[in-house]
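Researcher: Please generate the 3D structure of the following complex. Treat every line as part of one assembly.
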Amino acid sequence: MDDLYKEIILEHYKNPNNRGKVEGGIEAEEANMLCGDKLHISVKVEKGKVKEAMFLGGGCAISMAAVDMLLDKVKGMSLDEIKKMSGVEIEKMLGVDLTPARKKCAYLGLEVLKKIGA
Amino acid sequence: MKNQFPIFKKYPDLVYLDSGATTLKPQVVIDKMDEYMSEYSANIHRGVYALSEKATEEYESVREKVKSFIDGENGEVIFTKGTTDGLNLVAFGWGEKNLNEGDEIVIGLNEHHSNLVPWQELAKRKKLVLSTELSENTKLLAICQVGNVLGQINDIEKIVKEARKINPDILVVVDGAQAVGHRKVEVEKMDVDFYAFSGHKMYGPTGVGVLWGKKNRIEEMEPITYGGGMINEVSELSSTWAKGVERFEAGTPAIAEVIGLGAAIDWLKNIKLDEREIAKYLFDELKKLEFVKNFSSGESAVASFVVDGVHAHDVATILDRDNIAVRAGHHCAMPLHKMLGVEATVRVSVGIYNTKEDVDKLIVGLIKVKNIFKA
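Model: Done. Output below.
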């Protein structure tokens, strides 16, 4: 039917790999007041690289799938490398075109991640 | 009806269910605004040449049209930028001057932010008491005639009678944004002091609204925007204000928009506004879907609901794929959504062009949404 809600996004939304909280990790959170998307991310860094990363919160399928896929991706990256990531990479990761309104949903995870250890 | 709206020529499959946010524009309104802009687009009140006089006449004639439209012939009409602007004008044009420390204002936590935030700010500035229940100390009551999320219809006439029993001098200001364009409004019958609404929610253009007020209440107001058009005399260090409602209409107004509002009123005069049938159909059809929780009661053709297990944004995006336009979020009513216990709802609001088929398409769309998100 629809490319925005393709299988991979729904799969990450329904069965996320990274939901939870990293005990003793560095934390950051953010909310999108316009719609009620809320995100809390916790990260453990070892030797300068992300070892564990998990998220808690609720929101639309785009925001939840994006953060789950993002946390898969950043394992092994440094916080500096993460800070250099852009919204365009998120869209490439999701593999879909986003309207301006939904971009905010997709970028939420990256926004919170960039706040970690800021 | 749809053929009176050019947008349906461009998008024949459009199922527009967001009239609560703004209504679509009929050709007659567009044409009337076009006529001003193409044929007599002079400024009003200022020129002594024929074009300016024609513009002034067309503009001023809308004032009387508005009074007649809302049965407020004995009051005054101030043109504003919209409902929000009008409510702010009451708060800071009337409230600032006439309320004192310790006075109580009654507000509703289920109201649109535009009929909530100005009162919060006024209360902060003047050290007023905010309450949700009328008491002997209540000096001002701010309430909507129809709610923008739950579509509840407040019996303003009854509420005003009760309020005046407690305090005969209470100032009642009504947010009529969701009422005009959906039902006949009778401001004098309701005995309200101020009534604010927007042109763009009654098939008129954006950028224009009305604040209607009782003559004596308007006398009690102070201007809050200063400059040309609202003065009587200007000397080096001070100025005096104009006598009439012009003192609340500083600067060149949205002339084309006021004229467009007039055209919308003329157009609506020949239409019977009655949404009861489609309101019931919408409510009944949504009730059949067990995965939809509808917070509205079906009093008016507005429904705000959540879909089990699917975020409002996802519902709206999927419906959009099928050309169904709905709104998702908190609809400028955060305290209300907190009371409902949900982060965001999907809102469907009907306009004059909507049919039962539109509601049917919405239902099919919602079933589709549920299927996509099936666990």
